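User: Can you recover a sequence for this backbone? Please restate the input before giving your answer.

Assistant: Of course. Working from this structure:
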């Protein structure tokens, strides 16, 4: 017989199950650090740890994560905005200078005040949806603002 018999049953998956634990740890650590997790970042992580030069399509990876028990949903946002110490000190110095410029018990100022700062933080600047394991739940530690 020259023809080999066809294999019966379901074909093997593109993303091997041996990657499951590494992906689970990667997603868990990224959630703890508050990093935003995308399919692209998981795909690049798999390419880094993979011994072969196999590349996975993002749709295939999404189906694989779903099969492994991961979800893409709203995470718990428990931490408030964190500021670095030098930013807190700069704000305190700025406010002290502003108070010194004001005349006591009056709304007048010694010198005109000009506001040039246009920085702001919008609560919509970060994405609420994250990848997480069904076992762990959405325990991402990211700022609420």
């Amino acid at each position: 017989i020259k023809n080999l018999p066809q294999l019966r049953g379901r074909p093997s998956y593109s993303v091997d199950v041996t990657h499951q634990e590494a992906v689970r740890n990667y997603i868990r650590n990224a959630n703890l650090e508050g990093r935003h997790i995308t399919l692209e970042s998981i795909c690049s992580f798999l390419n880094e740890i993979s011994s072969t030069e196999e590349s996975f399509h993002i749709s295939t990876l999404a189906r694989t994560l779903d099969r492994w028990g991961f979800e893409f949903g709203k995470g718990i946002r428990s931490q408030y905005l964190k500021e670095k110490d030098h930013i807190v000190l700069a704000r305190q110095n700025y406010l002290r200078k502003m108070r010194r410029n004001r005349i006591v018990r009056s709304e007048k100022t010694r010198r005109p005040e000009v506001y040039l700062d246009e920085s702001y933080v919008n609560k919509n600047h970060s994405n609420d949806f994250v990848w997480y394991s069904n076992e762990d739940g959405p325990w991402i530690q990211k700022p609420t603002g």
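That completes the design. The first helix runs from residue 20 to 33.
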